Amino acid sequence: MDVILISIFSAIIIFITVYSMIKVLNIAYKREEITPRKRRVLVTSSILIGLLVTSILPFGYQKIFDGFLQPLL
Questions:
Q1: If 0-12 CB within 10 Å is exposed, 13-18 middle and 19+ buried, where does residue 45 land?
Q2: pTM as predicted
Q3: Which of 15, 19, 28, 43 is positioned for an S-S bond with 33, CB 3.0–4.6 A?
Q4: What would the pLDDT profile of 3-36 be if each residue is shown by its tens digit?
């Protein structure tokens, strides 16, 4: 139960970060500081990295709870 809650809150933080990065990239594109192709690549890569990290987090948290915190509890 703890792992699920921690993973959900971490996923929310990651999605807020990715959303903010996309907003910044859109502003840079409107100011013509980056090209459309570069914007597309950066938006796609930030979304994919966010999804990858979000999908790996529960396994990492589970390992932390099982390996390090179990002897303490």
A1: exposed
A2: 0.81
A3: 28
A4: 889 999 999 999 999 999 999 999 999 999 999 9
